[in-house]
Amino acid sequence: xxxxxxxxxxPVVGEGALRMHRFDVVCLxxxxxxxxxxxxxxHFSTHADGxxxxxxxxxxxxxxxxxGNHRVIAIENDDAPKRFGSWNTDDGHAVPGFTPEQIQxxxxxxxxxxxxxxxxxxxxxxxxxxxxxxxxxxxxxxxxFGPFAFGGRVPDGEVWTEHFGKVCPGDRRIxxxxxxxxxxxxxxxxxxxxxxxDEDMQLIKGDRADAVFVVVWSQPGxxxxxxxxxxxxxxxxxxxxxxxxxxxxxxxSVIDAIPDMx
Length: 262
Fold this sequence. Notes:
21% of the residues lie in helices and 16% in strands. It is α/β, with parallel strands linked by helices.
């Protein structure tokens, strides 16, 4: 079996399913509205809170990438309005970005796919049969994408859906793929964490209180100081979350030992 450790595995196919021929691409999708994960047509799906579901052993093809199914691992991703806020599911420009928890979950899947199947943790340039890496559904879609930040299928690219003009997974989500790749490479041990991401600033809370603090080191080796986040609508907090910072839970004694920022 090729099942990722630590996921919620809910298989929808058995040994009679079509087999993968090779492993070239991890392709990111968006579910597109009110549906909840898991999404059985794909190999994996992620919830807004970071939970990972696996619907297909990666020995078997998904049904999410049409002519690329023989070589593509597909990930569907939650975008339900009840969790992301109300948005017009008929407006391709309105698809919300991934949550920080989803970014981490998708990066974990990509890192596993790299170790298990050798898929390179680089940006996939297009849907041409020889292209490899981390890609997105629109790369295999025909359409008039002039008003969007990212185009669709290039000449000689595989067709990854029969639906003309489908914008999946949305410009905001496509723009987050470099961040996902960066995180996946760290998880896979290919790159070292950068100081500014993992040490220079953190969002942390104690395990016995709900308060979240921004913890900052003014320079390497300097003492840490903390500033309480007033609420989830604080602009700085929202910006940090959008940039991929996750709130880490630490022993309350750690929080209590850090002095306040003056």
